[in-house]
């Protein structure tokens, strides 16, 4: 994604399971897509009129949305830096990649340890084209891209490219940044995360961000369903307790659950955006 194509309203989790349609034939520029809309909010060029119209409609209702997108991206950089430097993580499974830009997961990780290995997962055909062209590893490390859906964790976990690239017996950084709010509770969001975490060894880390209404004005929160409907995409904007369920059985890394603009952000330019301006929760948990 750009300062990664992840937003509080980002990329859809992946190509629908079993969709064998070539990526070039799955692109519909008349329908807004979260990854392309996020690209628009960040000033990118990989978007179309429908994405811009959708982005403008959301920004009209919630003007700080562009701030939220940028802050979510900055968190990704800080999270990967923490995982590599302090947690000793050397391999990542990044689901919900989005359109590549600067400071993608492998770029941040490999700038610190050149032999870091990263598997990206997304379902948007435009993301697929860009990722295979641009997500190139350092000579010492490795990257792979899987065209798959977060809703099908078994397909992801058993993909040959994942198994060739990552050592599933060693700790992994599972990155679910601004993607879970596209999976509703009734569609098994928490169960999907549990299945992925269960497949990973002790010492692995789960990184999640998720949009929330906890900090926004009540009048805006009351309009959330209508805003979501105008965007054409359902969103699970979770409160703190709902967000915290993703980390059950894990040890939260300090400072725990925080607004995305506040998580270990002391070295970011001050003053930081308020929680209401970012409206996204962030946390990292370690598997004992």
Structural account:
- There is one protein chain.
- With 288 residues, the chain is of the alpha/beta class.
- It has a single domain, classed as Rossmann fold (3-Layer(aba) Sandwich), CATH 3.40.50.150.
- Helix content is 37%, strand content 14%.
- The protein is built from 13 helices and eight strands.
- Strands 1, 2, 3, 4, 5, 6, 7 and 8 form an eight-stranded mixed sheet that branches.
- Helix 6 links the parallel strand 2 and strand 3.
- The protein is globular.
- The model is unreliable at 1-19 (pLDDT under 50).
Features:
alpha/beta, Rossmann fold, globular, 288 residues
Radius of gyration: 17 Å
Estimate nothing, just give the exact number of structural domains: 1
CATH class: Alpha Beta
Q: How would you describe the shape?
A: globular
End-to-end separation in angstroms reads: 30 Å
SS-derived structural category: alpha/beta
Named CATH architecture: 3-Layer(aba) Sandwich
* Number of extended strands: 8
CATH superfamily: Vaccinia Virus protein VP39
What is CATH's topology name?
Rossmann fold
Mean pLDDT: 86
Query: How many individual helices?
Result: 13
Helicity range: 25-40%
Q: For the report, how would you describe the main beta sheet?
A: 8 strands, mixed
Q: Report the portion of residues in β strands.
A: 5-15%
Low-confidence stretches: 1-19
Write the element-wise H/E pattern from the N-terminal end onward.
HHHHEHEHEHHEHEHHHEEHE
């Amino acid at each position: 994604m750009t300062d990664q194509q992840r937003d509080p309203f980002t990329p859809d989790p992946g190509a629908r399971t079993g969709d064998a349609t070539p990526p070039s034939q799955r692109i519909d520029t008349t329908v807004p897509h979260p990854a392309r809309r996020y690209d628009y909010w960040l000033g990118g060029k990989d978007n179309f009129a429908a994405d811009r119209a959708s982005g403008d409609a959301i920004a009209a209702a919630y003007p700080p949305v562009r701030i939220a997108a940028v802050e979510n991206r900055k968190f990704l950089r800080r999270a990967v830096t923490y995982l590599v430097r302090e947690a000793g993580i050397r391999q990542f499974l990044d689901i919900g990649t989005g359109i590549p830009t600067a400071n993608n997961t492998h770029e941040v990780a490999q700038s610190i340890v050149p032999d870091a290995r990263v598997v990206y997962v997304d379902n948007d055909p435009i993301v697929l084209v860009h990722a295979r062209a641009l997500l190139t590893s350092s000579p010492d490390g490795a990257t792979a891209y899987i065209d798959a859906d977060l809703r099908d964790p078994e397909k992801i976990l058993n993909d040959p490219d994942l198994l060739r690239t990552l050592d599933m017996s060693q700790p992994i950084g599972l990155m679910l940044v601004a993607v879970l709010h596209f999976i509703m509770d009734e569609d098994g969001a928490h169960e999907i995360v549990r299945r992925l975490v269960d497949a990973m060894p002790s010492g692995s880390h789960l990184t999640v961000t998720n949009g929330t209404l906890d900090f926004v004005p009540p009048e805006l929160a009351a309009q959330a369903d209508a805003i979501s409907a105008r965007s054409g995409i359902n969103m699970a904007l979770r409160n703190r307790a709902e967000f915290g369920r993703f980390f059950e059985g894990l040890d939260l890394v300090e400072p725990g659950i925080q607004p995305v603009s506040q998580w270990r952000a002391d070295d970011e330019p001050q003053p930081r955006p308020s929680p209401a301006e970012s409206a996204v929760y962030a946390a990292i948990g370690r598997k004992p």
